[in-house]
Amino acid sequence: MENNGPSAGSYNNFRVLYLITQMVGATIVILVGSWIGAHLNGLAWTSQPSVQFNWHPLLMTMGMIFLYGNSILIYRGFRYARKKPLKITHAVIHGLAFIFTVIALVAAFDSHNLANPPRPNMYTLHSWVGMAAVVIFGLQYVFGFVSYLFPGVRDTLRATYMPIHVFFGVFGFVLAITACLLGLLEKAIFSINNYSQLPPQAVLVNMIGLLMVVYGCLVVFLVTEPMYKRKPLPEDVMLLTHSASSQ
Question: Can you give the pTM of this predicted structure?
Answer without folding.
Answer: 0.87
